[in-house]
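G., the chain you wanted modeled:
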Amino acid sequence: MKLYDGEKQVGDWDQRHVKGLHEEYQDEGMNGVSPHFVINRISSALVKGGRNYVTPIDVLRSLRDGITEVTSSDEERKRLLGFIDEVRKEFDDLWNVLDTSVGPDKPKPRKFPPEPDKDLMGFLCDHSRDLEKWQRDILNMIREEMIYFIPQMRTKIINEGWASFWHERIMNDLPLTPQEHLEFRRLHSSVLSPGSKMSINPYYVGYNILRDIERRWNGEEDQDFPETNWHDEKLTRPTGEGLKKLFEARTDECDTTFLRKYLTQGLVENLDMYTYRLQELHGEQMWVVQETDWRHVRDTLIDGMTNFGIPVIRVEDADYLHRGELLLTHAYDGKPLDQDYTSRTLKNIQFLCKRPVHLQTIRDDKPILLSHDGDNFTESAPK
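Predicted structure as tokens:
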């Protein structure tokens, strides 16, 4: 990609290789599937697998399951499935180790749903046997409203920062009186307060990142934090392209990619962004700084945005132990569930499905089964 973007040399490759590819494959890049589709299917495989890694088989299965999203004809679908089948043959030695539906068909025990279902609300709407029609309607309204707000949830930091950035730019260009300008500044400062140790202010973080992008792509250097490339060589930015870069970032990024690309060491240190933990000092619980490394702070912030900070819960079995009970599984990512919140949530799910509900998760590196029958919340070892 760096070569395609104009860099003369990347490793052992240079512009001659790009030219040769264009000459040999004149339609190169003009057909096939979008890289975004592949990235989304890998992400789907990771979420579906409930692990912090994916195997080649997981990726092949996910690509196959989503191939209808990018094909408009049976012929194209068969062609792409043929590619997947060819790649699958490279992993034939894994069939005895990994259970996969990409390879030869194997008899499977009957289970409902056949595959884990991440849409818990939708599953309850469709399959709970004891809900009245009006109850299903309310659940569907809640679910549809949540789906509607997902794009806003993905771009909260960049959205709020964008609004604050342009609000200030417009107000500065207006012929305000000193009193009006003072009133605006007072309001603007309150909106852009740093936040607390427990949470960040999306207006504050987004606004400062956007200002930093404009500065960097206008060619203005930060003497305290000079920019370098991956070879630790000084990086020279273009001049006068700040606004262009702002609109590019606004168009292309969601919050996680926005922070990954543009939250720099200078910003983390200037905005006093650290990670904290509760610690007892002199008999009192106090928040103390846990980590100051800027990469760790950035990655912790991004990690907290995975799935919007909401645990990934899947419907695993609607006939658990053949008793008509509901089994859910938690895609454990190293962060344990809040015990009180989990108890209340399971009680509410039990109210909707009118049968005992179980949730399998991890605590202290050991599997545990949390259950609620409508009256009592219990813990046990998974069966």
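The chain has three domains: 9-94, 156-303, 311-380.

Shout if anything looks off.
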